[in-house]
Amino acid sequence: MLIDINAYVGNWPFQQLKYNTCEALYERMNKFGVDVSVISNLNGIFYKNTQSANEELYKEIRSNRRFKDRFIPYAVINPIYAGWQDDLETCIKTYGFKGVRLYPRYHDYEILDPACIELVKRVRDYGLPVAFNYRMVDSRERSWMDISNMKGNAIREWNLKNILPIVNAVPDAKYMILNFANAAKLDTEEMNLVKKSDLLFDTSGRTITNMSDFLNLYGSDKFAFGTHSPILDYLTGLLRIESLHSNEADENTKEMLRSGNAKKMLGF
């Protein structure tokens, strides 16, 4: 079984996308043997009211009965936008969404903003995961209209150290950390936090150049297949799993990466 924990529908204002509807993604999943995809609506990153994007996703999934068992919808919530508490409740209780994705940099708040901490705690209390992205696109290829990831001549994209403060603040929540990019070096305390947390990385990000090294460093229970589709290509995240040699990962470990770890996180 294959579960993609990092996919989207919707539009990216700065790039033409393909396969960015439920119908197109459904066909692509069938072509490459992906059984289930965790999806949210890219439009929610840019809409002033993120709930409009969540409503779009809800309606799109309901438009075809084939989608019901193939897509797991995540809400995009902005905790500094008025009424987000009601939006969260609607998404979970009425729409049946199974998690939340947060975008502090795009929605312009700090990761330890009290509202963000409150939101993560509320999602935790529902028993659902909250997801953060290192980045959406490579800063070297960003549009001049996209958020700036530069400070002087230096790229200042997020790395794992930027995300860990919220994990430390709410250590009993479930976390997905997506599109693994940039520096991965942690001190002993930070590594212990990662290992004891209910936390899952996807396999889409460029930093994962040698999957076996990451399995040895973080543990085989900390990774799951993800594509970051349709912004990134559909196959690299899977190739990082399937290219592992038998002395790097046995079949049981590969199955954990394909779906086992995701099932545990998603409550299958």
UniProtKB/TrEMBL annotation:
<dbReference type="Pfam" id="PF04909">
    <property type="entry name" value="Amidohydro_2"/>
</dbReference>
<protein>
    <recommendedName>
        <fullName>Amidohydrolase-related domain-containing protein</fullName>
    </recommendedName>
</protein>
<dbReference type="InterPro" id="IPR006680">
    <property type="entry name" value="Amidohydro-rel"/>
</dbReference>
<dbReference type="InterPro" id="IPR032466">
    <property type="entry name" value="Metal_Hydrolase"/>
</dbReference>
<feature type="domain" description="Amidohydrolase-related">
    <location>
        <begin position="47"/>
        <end position="133"/>
    </location>
</feature>
